[in-house]
Specification:
102 residues; 2 helices; 3 strands
């Protein structure tokens, strides 16, 4: 019996992640917009993991969409190499200052 295969993609070589399709990317950004938006609206900030430059760009885009939706600035800060923080102006962390040299 022969079956037609629809929506089949080739698997990447050993251990590599598969890139998202255009539709999957749009759905994921919509979920981030909703979930992170609700959390930021409740507590003023939200933290989310971002391990790759693509994930960081995605969070920056979500922050820009939230800012346009709310008509106020949403800041994106890297907390460490694996985490990003999205926050409203009043919840922004202060930049650390280096001690003065004698």
């Amino acid at each position: 019996m022969i079956r037609d295969l629809y929506n089949v993609r080739l698997q990447p070589a050993e251990g590599g992640p598969t890139p998202l399709t255009e539709e999957e990317e749009q759905r994921f950004r919509a979920v981030l917009f909703s979930e992170l938006g609700n959390k930021i609206a409740d507590q003023g900030w939200a933290r989310f993991p971002a391990y790759t430059p693509q994930e960081r760009r995605r969070l920056v885009d979500v922050a820009q969409r939230l800012a346009a939706h709310w008509e106020q600035q949403v800041f994106v800060e890297a907390e460490d190499p694996c985490r990003m923080r999205l926050c409203l102006a009043g919840y922004r962390t202060q930049p650390e200052t280096l001690p003065a040299r004698p």
